[in-house]
Amino acid sequence: MMNQYLGYSENELEKLKAYWTAKEIEQQPSCWKKTQEIVEIRQADIRPFMDKVFAHENLRIVMTGAGTSAFAGQSLAPSLAKLTGRRIEAIASTDIVSNPGQYFAEDLPTLLVSFARSGNSPESVAAVELADQCLTNCYHLFLTCNKEGLLHKSSVNNSKVLALLMPEETHDKSFAMTSSFSSMMIAAISVLSGNEEMSEKVAQISQVTETLIAQINSPITEIASCDYERVIYLGSGTLQGLAQESALKLLELTAGEVVATFDSPLGFRHGPKSIVNNKTLIVVFISNDAYTRKYDLDLLKELRRDKSAGKVIAITAQSDQAVTEGEHFYVTDMQAACDTELLFPYMIFAQIYAFHRAISLNNSPDNPCPTGEVNRVVQGVTIHSFNS
Predict the structure, then answer these.
(1) What is the count of structural domains for the chain?
(2) Is 297 a domain residue?
(3) Backbone φ and ψ of 161, nearest 5°
């Protein structure tokens, strides 16, 4: 029997040049469980390495990557800092490479966590080399999806590097990162938190998300058929990083035909709200944190009162009147989840919307920019020598 992904048969997806994107979005719950299994299998390597790293009381953890890989760090840094009690920052490799003297000005014991789908991007490799050049004591955690990548190969016989490969199918064949992005995040949470209950949490998140995909695909297809010219994603704390990635996913798959941006609910009032008109779709990722949620709901109610946007959608795991008074998508069985866990079902909305919006614009999701101005692995970057 022929498989279906996101409501299309394999033959239809091949004609639309959308097969890999659809498959890689749908396969994520399975990939998360496989990723966690890999982490568990590698515990004999992970535990002594992390014990050695965490022995430094003044440890600085920097999460890095380019594009979507950078937003993995942006999404995780706030919540993991709270969870671990460690100093954790997210700094894009594109920023590190152009300004290493600023970002590595403090010569502290550092763990550089590199997210990289291919491990071949010039900035990914250069950020690692610059960290070693600028810092006296630097450890590395490579989370990649490509065993042939330069990053993974460079980890061999290096006691200061721990390299983890995600399941082979997460080395996405489509242009946009989906299963690679989310699987590397699962691995980062598991390794850095050392949570012994992570296996159960991943199983729950995977089950919830698998059910969610089946529930929301059809209504999102209808929303994507509407001609919204501007889309704004809003989220607080760890969900702001997801909002940033969600905007990028839409820009990538529509080849920039839809203007997409992001902000925090509180920050949105300070000027960016000026972008809203009747051709605007606003998506608010609602936090489960009781305090943060108050601010998210305040803005949600304000946006609906304004009636300036074409549509305002709340994505939530907790149901209350402020949410149900307007359009919303509800994630079941995660009312008590922390926002780190909500990242995974929430991101599905953004990925599926970007996929169907691209189809509605007659774009090819697997290769939305065939003329080559933007590439799957970035090209055209010259890495210049740095004298520290």
Answers:
(1) 2
(2) yes
(3) -125, 130
Q: Are residues 44 and 178 in the same domain?
A: yes
Residues 281, 179, single domain; the answer is: no
Length of the chain: 388
Residues 209 and 144 reside in one and the same domain: no
Cα-Cα-Cα-Cα dihedral sign, residues 244, 245, 246, 247: positive
- In this prediction the pTM is 0.94
Instruction: Report yes or no: 222 and 195 within 8 Å, Cβ to Cβ.
Output: no
Judgement on whether residues 169 and 42 belong to the same structural domain of the protein:
yes
| Same domain, yes or no: 178 and 230 | no
Host domain of residue 15:
4-196
> Apex CA 365: angle with CA 363 and CA 368, to 5°?
65
Angle of helix 198-224 relative to helix 339-360, nearest 10 degrees, comes to 30
Give the type of residue at 72: A
In a domain, 219, yes or no: yes
* 3-class DSSP assignment, residue 284: strand
Examine the domain organization and report whether 46 and 117 are in the same domain: yes
Distance from C-alpha of 136 to C-alpha of 56, rounded to nearest angstrom: 13
CATH number at residue 95: 3.40.50.10490
Count CA within 13 A, CB hemisphere, residue 226: 14
Are 190 and 236 in the same domain?
Answer: no
Q: Is residue 278 part of a domain?
A: yes
Is there a domain that residue 281 lies in? yes
Q: How far apart are the first and last CA of the chain?
A: 60
Cα 236 from Cα 346, distance rounded (Å): 13
pLDDT tens by residue, the chain, 388 residues: 568 999 999 999 999 999 999 999 999 999 999 999 999 999 999 999 999 999 999 999 999 999 999 999 999 999 999 999 999 999 999 999 999 999 999 999 999 999 999 888 888 899 999 999 999 999 999 999 999 988 988 888 889 999 999 999 999 999 999 999 999 999 999 999 987 889 999 999 999 999 999 999 999 999 999 999 999 999 999 999 999 999 999 999 999 999 999 999 999 999 999 999 999 999 999 999 999 999 999 999 999 999 999 999 999 999 989 999 999 999 999 999 999 999 999 999 999 999 999 999 999 999 877 655 555 466 667 878 888 7
Whether residues 262 and 170 share a domain: the answer is no
